[in-house]
Every structure is written in structure tokens, then in C-alpha cells.
């Protein structure tokens, strides 16, 4: 086993132990939580090693990096998540490889994704990104729609050809009432999710929590956690 594969295996074991302990503490089954490894800034060779180690869900946040990486790993049994803020001019590219787009926060993006998905003959899973630092009608500092805009956007997704409403995503806010309170933020997301599932029962995916706060996300009820640094190491600085 290569040194890098050994390192990744050890890190994955530690993350797995954290998720398992968090599930046990919350009275949840381990299989209720899916690990998504965020591979941004790391090479396709790492993605291959992760796949060999049993990882099935990977995430990227920049199309210019993700597209060639996904192409290089097209032979692997992976589910690709796009988690970054997405401009409409990148939608056609993203829709060619992403299985789930987690950062949908405006109708214009829904419409663009729908056209691209239909053009590519694919069905894209969509998560609405909820900004818990956004006022009514505004977008958050890190993307996302304010809580009051979720239901309207959900209707747009369900009416759009080629798209499937899978649920909600959030990033713990760096400002506003939830600053420094990830558990409270994730509890709020679960409340919004419960309300959404009344009208859209299949939209039961809740993506929340990263390397620093995955325990809080699991305790709140997240179904997916997005972990990068704890698996791959401290990220190289982008040039």
C-alpha cells in the first residue's frame, strides 16, 4: 500500500469513528449518515485511492477543477456532488458529470440546470442551499436562499424537467444569529426540512456538517456530511 493510500485509509478510519460515535450518541444507525469526501484542490490520483478504499460519494466546488477530474475518473463507481456557488455559464459543464448539485439558490439557476440536464439526457439531483445568515429575499454571504424562499424554489425545481428535488443543504454561517452555533443552525435546517417534506416527502436528504462540525450535524439529523480536510489533510493553497 502506498504511503498516500495508507494515510488516506488512516484518516478515513478516524472520520468513520467520529461519525459512528456521533450516530451512537444521537441514537441513530450508522447507515443513516452518508460520508461525502470533498476532494477539491486534490488530484484525481487521490480520488482513485479513495475509491479503492470504499468511498463512493465525492464533492467538488469549482467546475474548472472538477470537470477534468471527473473525466479522468469516469471509470470509477462514484457519485459526484457539486457543492460550490454555481454560475449559469458553468451549468452545461457541471450537468455533464455531477449527479447532485447541492448549491441551488435561485430560479435562474434552476432553469439553466433544467435545460442542461434535458440537453444531456440526464436527471440531476438538486439540493436547495439554505442561507441561515440571509434576510428575507436575500442570498447568503456563502450562497444560498433565505429560509422564506425555500418552498417557492422547491416548487420551481419540481416543475423543472430533468431535475429531481432531493432535499436541502447548508453551511454553518460565519455571521448572523447562528455565528459560532453550528448545532443551532443545523437544528433550524432540520425544521425547514420537516416543513419541506410535508409537500415533498421524497426530498429527505439533508447535507450539513464538515470536518469541524460533523458531530453537531449528525446530532441534529443530517443524512449527509461533507468532509474534506479530516480525510485529505490541510488543503494546498490555491495559486
Automatic annotation (TrEMBL):
Positions of modified residues (N6-(pyridoxal phosphate)lysine): 40
Coiled-coil zones: none
PROSITE patterns: UPF0001
Alanine racemase N-terminal domain boundaries: 32-236
Gene3D superfamilies, per database record: Alanine racemase (3.20.20.10)
This protein's UniProt keywords: Pyridoxal phosphate
Keyword Membrane: no
Keyword Magnesium: no
Gene Ontology MF terms: pyridoxal phosphate binding
Cofactor(s) demanded: pyridoxal 5'-phosphate
Family matches, as NCBIfam families: YggS family pyridoxal phosphate-dependent enzyme (TIGR00044)
Physiological role: Pyridoxal 5'-phosphate (PLP)-binding protein, which is involved in PLP homeostasis.
HAMAP family noted in UniProt: PLP_homeostasis (MF_02087)
Family note: Belongs to the pyridoxal phosphate-binding protein YggS/PROSC family.
Full protein name: Pyridoxal phosphate homeostasis protein
Native species: Streptomyces malaysiensis subsp. samsunensis
Taxonomic lineage of the native organism: Bacteria, Bacillati, Actinomycetota, Actinomycetes, Kitasatosporales
Amino acid at each position: 500500500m502506498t504511503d498516500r493510500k495508507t494515510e488516506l485509509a488512516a484518516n478515513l478510519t478516524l472520520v468513520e469513528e467520529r461519525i459512528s460515535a456521533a450516530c451512537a450518541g444521537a441514537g441513530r444507525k450508522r447507515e443513516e449518515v452518508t460520508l461525502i469526501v470533498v476532494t477539491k484542490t486534490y488530484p484525481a490520483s487521490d480520488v482513485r485511492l479513495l475509491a479503492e478504499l470504499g468511498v463512493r460519494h465525492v464533492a467538488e466546488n469549482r467546475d474548472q477543477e472538477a470537470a477534468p477530474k471527473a473525466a479522468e475518473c469516469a471509470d470509477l463507481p462514484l457519485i459526484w456532488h457539486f457543492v460550490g456557488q454555481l454560475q449559469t455559464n458553468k451549468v452545461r459543464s457541471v450537468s455533464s458529470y455531477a449527479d447532485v448539485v447541492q448549491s441551488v439558490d435561485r430560479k435562474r439557476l434552476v432553469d439553466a440546470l433544467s435545460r442542461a440536464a434535458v440537453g444531456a439526457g440526464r436527471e440531476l439531483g438538486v439540493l436547495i442551499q439554505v442561507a441561515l445568515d440571509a434576510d428575507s429575499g436575500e442570498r447568503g454571504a456563502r450562497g444560498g436562499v433565505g429560509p422564506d424562499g425555500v418552498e417557492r424554489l422547491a416548487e420551481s425545481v419540481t416543475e423543472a424537467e430533468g431535475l429531481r428535488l432531493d432535499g436541502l443543504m447548508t453551511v454553518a454561517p460565519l455571521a448572523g444569529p447562528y455565528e459560532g452555533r453550528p448545532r443551532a443552525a443545523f437544528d433550524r435546517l432540520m425544521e425547514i426540512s420537516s416543513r419541506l417534506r410535508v409537500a415533498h416527502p421524497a426530498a429527505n436528504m439533508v447535507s450539513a456538517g464538515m470536518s469541524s462540525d460533523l458531530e453537531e450535524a449528525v446530532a441534529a439529523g443530517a443524512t449527509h456530511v461533507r468532509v474534506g480536510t479530516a480525510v485529505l489533510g490541510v488543503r494546498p493553497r490555491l495559486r
